[in-house]
Structures are given as C-alpha cells and as structure tokens.
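Support reply, case 0932

Customer input (verbatim):
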Amino acid sequence: MTRFYFFGRLFLLALCLCAPRQAAAGKPNVVMIVVDDMGWTGLSSYGSDLHETPHIDRLASAGVRFTNAYAAAPVCSPTRASIMTGKSPARLHITVWHESAGEPPAWMRQKLVPPTTEKNLSQDDFTLAEALRAEGYLTAHIGKWHLGDAANYPENHGFDVNVGGTFWGCPATFFYPYRGPFGGQKEMRYVPGLSQGKKGEYLTDRLTDEALAIIDRAGEQPFYLNLWYYTVHTPIEGPPDLVDYYRRKIKKRTDNAQNKRLDHDNANYAAMHHRLDENIGRLLARLQERGIAENTIVLLTSDNGGYVNDYKGRQVTSNAPLRSGKGSLYEGGVRVPLIVKWPGKTVAGGVCQEPVITTDFYPTICRMAGVAGDAQYNKQIEGQDITPLLLNPAAALDREALYFHYPHYYPTTAPVSAVRAGDWKLLEYHEGRRVELYNLADDLGEQHNLAETRPKEKRRLVHLLHDWRAEVGAQMPSVNSAARK
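Our regenerated output:
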C-alpha cells in the first residue's frame, strides 16, 4: 500500500508538470509559509529575547516586515480558511478548529453554548489554489491542512499535490515515524505521505525536503507552494542537540543576576523555532541555487498567537508585551508576524505599521501573480489587496476596521467578538455583554479598560461590530438552559 501510494504520487506530479504552461509564462512563483502557533514575538526580528532566527530575519531585511498583522481568528482552522478563501471565518461559519466544529463538545457547553459550525471548507468557495491553477500554476500543499475531512483535503480544493495534509491539527510526535497515541483519549494519529524515513528524522526537516523536491521538479512551470509547517504547535519537541544548546543559554542568562527574567524561557520551544529557521534557510538557498529567487514571492506568517497554556507541566511561551495568547482576542491571540518579499517590488528592510489581516492574502497574491481569479467569486472576497503597502510601507489602506469573532470557549477566553478601528480596539464578551475598550497606541498590553471613560468611542465601535456581524451572518452562542438550573 505504501509503495502504491508513493508511485501514485509521483505519477500525479508528473501529470501536473506536463500540463499546458503557456498561460503561466512569465508569472512569479509563490511560497506561502504558515507557522503554527508562532506568537508575535517568536522571531528575533520581532523581539524574542531567546530564539535565534537569523535566516528569517534576513528574509525580513530583504522584504517588508509588518508590525500590525493579524490572524483572522485566534485558532488555526478559521485562519487557514481565511487565507484560502479571502473571507472572514464568521462569514464562512468556520470559527473553531476542525475537531471541535459541528456540534460543540461538552467542555465548551458552559454558561453559553457555542453555535454549530462548519467542519469542512466548502467546495463552493473558489480557493486561492484554484485561482492559481487555472492560470497554469503547479499547486502543492505541504504540511498542516486542518480544513476538513478526507473529501475536503487539499486535492479537492485546487492542489495538484498534497503531502502531510489531514483533518488533524497536530502530529502525535515530531519524530519519525510521526505516528502514535495523541491526547487524553490516546487517539492514534499519523502524518500521511511521509513513509521511508529513518529513526531520528524530524518533521520540520522532512516537510522541507518534500517542498524542495516540488521546487526541483517544477522545472519552468510556475508553482504555488503552501508550506504550512506543523511546528511550533504542541507536542513541544525540539531536536535534542538544539534543546541542550538553549538549556545552556537559558542557564547562562539566568545565572547572571544582572539579567531580568526571560520572556521566552522554554528550551524545547526555542529549539523548534531554531530548526524552523534553519529550514527556511534551506528553502531560500534552494531558490538561489536554481536561479529563481528573483522570481519567487515569499510570505511568512502564523495562524494565531503563541500558546500560553501549559504543556507537560510548564508554560509554553509568553507573548509579552501583548496580553494573553492563542484562543483569546486580546492582541496576544491574534497579532502575528508577517514578512513579505516580492523581488523587485518590496522595499528592502521596509517596516509597515498599517493593520492587515490574513483575509487580505487572497486578493494580494492574485494581484502579485497577475491572476484574475473568478469574477463572480471575487465579489464575495472580504480581504483587501495590500500590494500598495508592499510598494510603499508608509502607505495607508482605505479600510475602516478589522473584525474578529470567536463564539467559543478556550482556556484563555469566553465567547467574544472584537473590532479594531485605528488605534482603538473593542472586545465584546457574550457572557453578560461585557465590553472592554483599549487604545493600542498608549496601551499595547490592553491593561486599561476605557469603556466607562470613553462612552462615545465605545458606542461607535459597538455599532461597527454589530453591523458587521449582521452583514456576514455571524453565528452567535446561546444561553445554556441546563447551566442555569
């Protein structure tokens, strides 16, 4: 079965490479790198006081680094859906990760009951991959998918090749053979398409190997590569040599009484970032070796903020100076790194402070690639083309606000919606309709609730948020009658 799968995949790839290429002549390659659960300060270029990420930092120095980039949701599946469709998770009714979609699980039925949400990315949506493939691109997905069951894997959403993409959100282990029991229920998991490995092989390395093979086989055909790493999600497992390196580094820092406590002090988590960075270096080097670096757009971001809860008895990370983390609509849950290099277009070393969101990637990538997409579907897209910011990082977009909707529970939050308009940000919790208002220019850590002292601003943002929820048909939680008894 394994041999059949392996040769079948090679045959499929060969067919893809023999497809007509005329429509894609002269178009740039696109590499979309999505890191799982990497917080806003996870990279050294974004302020990490422990992680070493020199290759990604060099990518940032060659392109534009965004300081106010947002994931469309504080958890993975909804954000990934926003990237593929250009639509908000609220409109898609994909507002929670796949395994908790559909009927809400028992642990989420608290004072409120979350809505019944979509488990699969609808095939009625014309994905970014479909738009690019229609113009002659080879389309490949490598790594985490998390957007539906087997009938809704990448192959049915515009991708010619899928390696590693399933409905699961993380592997049982980052070490070969990448399978085993996961979680309290000991569910057996595996990562498909990664056979014939060897003991000690690391998942981040292997996914990069698969990506490099796609690049090498593409020949002259432009390619769109979704390189969606499983790292730095749980299980928090770094390569042993790098874990030892960071343990020594942390000890050296903490032994020095003059040094303050590190915001990042998890050696395994740091090692995962380090190995990720080394693999980004491998990818960029291969583009150079093949002479296609100057015709390849590279984007790197995260699907939500860093995970601030415990794993095996210790906190995974901190998103300081941002508040909270994954699952929350505070800045620590949704503000993420974003680096874009568009050769010959982006300003090297540019820093952009304009707020952008992952929903923007669809129209932006289509614009950069010179791809028209589907005219009717384009009318449904909520994202905004941000190429003006890539050409001039000091430019501004004609957009009133960014919106977020998470009608579910998580260890960091109760059901909540949020809106950011300029420097103002409002959160509305659905339990008791509690409202919080912050000015991010003065209070990045969201510590001073101004809802009572700035009533006019509060009313304005509540009005914006409610109008938006009505417009997109956002699903709302309901009162749990059982909990009231």
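We compared this against your earlier run and they match. Two observations from our side: The chain is about 30% helix and 15% strand. The longest strand covers residues 29-35. Please reopen the case if you see a mismatch on your end.
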